[in-house]
């Protein structure tokens, strides 16, 4: 199934400037992160279709996923 990606610049630098990705039916947010090579503890939060979602959320075709990493500063 096709998932649309919106990646924070830091994540895009890590995995490439992907816009869409094919994943098997039943893939969760954790599975998507693994497929992209993004460590779960580096993904601060994930939005699915504009709403924050837990890592065990199952994705559906045409979902839009935004991955925001933890950011530090001060």
Query: What is the makeup of the main sheet?
Result: 5 strands, mixed
Percent strand: 25-35%
Q: Report the count of strand segments.
A: 5
Could you report the average pLDDT, rounded to the nearest whole number? 88
Per CATH, the superfamily is Beta-grasp domain
* H and E string: EHEHEEE
Write down the CATH class.
Alpha Beta
Portion of residues within helices: 10-25%
Q: Write down the CATH topology.
A: Ubiquitin-like (UB roll)
Structural class: alpha+beta
The N- to C-terminal Cα distance equals 40 Å
- The number of distinct structural domains comes to 1
What can you see in these coordinates?
- The protein is of the alpha+beta class.
- The model has no long low-confidence stretch (mean pLDDT 88).
- The protein has helices at residues 9-15, 29-36, and strands at residues 2-7, 20-22, 43-48, 51-53, 64-69.
- Helices cover 20% and strands 32% of the residues.
- The chain has a five-stranded mixed β-sheet with strand order 2-1-5-3-4.
- It has a single domain (2-69), classed as Ubiquitin-like (UB roll).
Ordered list of secondary-structure elements with their pairings:
Layout: E1 2-7, H1 9-15, E2 20-22, H2 29-36, E3 43-48, E4 51-53, E5 64-69
Parallel strand pairs: 1-5
Antiparallel strand pairs: 1-2, 3-4, 3-5
């Amino acid at each position: 199934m096709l998932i649309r990606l919106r990646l924070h610049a830091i994540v895009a630098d890590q995995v490439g400037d992907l816009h869409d990705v094919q994943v098997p039916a039943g893939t969760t947010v954790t599975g998507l992160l693994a497929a992209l090579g993004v460590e779960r503890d580096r993904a601060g939060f994930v939005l699915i279709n504009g709403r924050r979602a837990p890592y065990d959320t199952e994705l559906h075709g045409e979902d839009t996923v935004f991955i925001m990493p933890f950011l530090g500063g001060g």
